[in-house]
Design goal:
The chain is α+β, with helices and mostly antiparallel strands and 118 residues long. It has 2 domains: 50 residues, Signal recognition particle alu RNA binding heterodimer, srp9/1; 54 residues, 2,3-Dihydroxybiphenyl 1,2-Dioxygenase, domain 1 (Roll). The chain contains 2 helices and 8 strands. Strands 2-3-4-1-5-8-7-6 form an 8-stranded mixed β-sheet, covered by helices on one side. β6 and β7 form a beta hairpin. The two termini are 25 Å apart. 19% of the residues are buried.
Length: 118
């Protein structure tokens, strides 16, 4: 198989109903304070992983955690996975800091995330 490879899963976003309560639990789990802390997103760095908390599922309306695969070319990877049978849920878009994100749905309805850092 040809195409662009991934850099692995480095980011997992969790939808939460109460950001303050969830932040306390994840801070206790990781033993560190969040590196990003705002009313719309709380993010932790732990052992090379980024764990994000998104209130109310965020703009994607997430209902379960979504793992994000880091890629060097998000548009190329979107083309590859859709050609293989995935459906775009959320097209690639800039979320700030030079980071592009997108989500696709596999044939079984699982949501897969893609991230490209510029």
């Amino acid at each position: 198989m040809t195409g662009s490879s991934t850099q692995g899963i480095k980011t997992v976003l969790h939808p939460v109903s109460d950001l303050a309560k969830a932040k306390a639990v994840y801070a206790a789990l990781f033993g560190v304070a969040p590196q990003a802390d705002s009313p719309y997103y709380v993010g932790f760095e732990s052992e090379g992983q980024h764990i994000g908390l998104v209130p109310g599922g965020g703009p994607q309306g997430m209902t379960s955690p979504v793992a994000y695969w880091h890629v060097s070319d998000i548009e190329a990877k979107l083309a590859e996975v859709t050609a293989a049978g995935a459906t775009v849920k959320e097209a690639a878009h800039d979320v700030g800091g030079g980071r592009l994100v997108a989500t696709v749905i596999d044939p079984d309805g699982n949501v897969l995330g893609l991230i490209q850092d510029l």
